[in-house]
Amino acid sequence: MVIDVDATLVSAHSEKEHARPTFKRGFGFHPLCAFVDHGPDGTGEPLTIRLRPGNAGSNTAADHIAVITAALAQLPGHPGRTRASKKILVRTDGAGSTHTLLDWLARQRLGYSVGFTLPAHTPDLINILDDADVWTPAYDAHDQVRDGAWVAELTGLLDLTGWPPGMRVIVRKERPHPGAQLRFDDVDGMRITAFATNTRPGGPGTQLADLELRHRRRARVEDRIRIAKDTGLANLPLRGFDANRIWSAIVMLALDLTAWMQTLALAEHDARRWEPKRLRLRLFNIPAVIARRARQRVLHLAEHAPWANLVTDGLNRLRSPCTAPG
Description:
Elements: E1 2-7, E2 10-11, E3 20-21, E4 27-29, E5 32-37, E6 46-50, H1 61-73, E7 89-92, H2 99-107, E8 111-115, H3 122-132, E9 136-139, E10 145-153, E11 168-174, E12 191-197, H4 208-216, H5 220-233, H6 241-265, H7 276-284, E13 288-293, E14 296-301, H8 308-319
Parallel strand pairs: 1-7, 7-8
Antiparallel strand pairs: 1-5, 2-4, 3-4, 5-6, 8-12, 9-10, 10-11, 11-12, 13-14
Helix pairs in contact: 5-6
């Protein structure tokens, strides 16, 4: 079970309660969101959305802990206390790389994969890794070797005093794609990134390339946030802060309904991956009439609608005794 945590900016075009200037020189709110990630074919439903003022910090550990705690409470069967295994993995970017958050995750016995900021002498560390020839080819999104990218473990070369026991730091170097702007922290023309995890070596899926690919798949949370904004999070319509918190909860409910509708009713069709704009255009706007006959409600869909058959098949699938995919 993977929980992705990330923040986003929501603009406000009027004086709303707790709307503040943002770090990108905008004005509005800075909600922190948590989504469950079941893989590319999963649902990606939201677990919690914590509405915050626009000037809320990106790396505020207290907000991350509150969001992860609320997300854990949404998981079926979670007892609400410390788990005795690392079957739940929390992924976030470098904003979650704080001592307070990682210490809390370690005490909760949760797995984590968090972006990590490298020290100033990173070029010297990369040279040591180059001399030792310990780099391993990285994988692309399809689990195939990616040309021009390598990963290595940097744990033994760093002073991790004060960080949680068992934390590992894995670094990736990659040749920038043609046309990419070089950055001041690039080393010998290579783009360097790193993340921290407490996943132990050994066992399936624990090779360095597998762990690095697992962390990069956190980028799916950007798609979840975009879908949330298309569902109603992009514009908070109400004046009061608590009222907009309720609006955010309604957005979460709509996301849940849409995600599970697609999973159960549209599992064998390309519509399984359609986003809200396409769903509204092709499915949600089909002309229909509700009629009552023989003490039953009957939904009559317009026969000329090109996607009416898909709606009918989906409704029949939801009515069937077993609606699970496959």
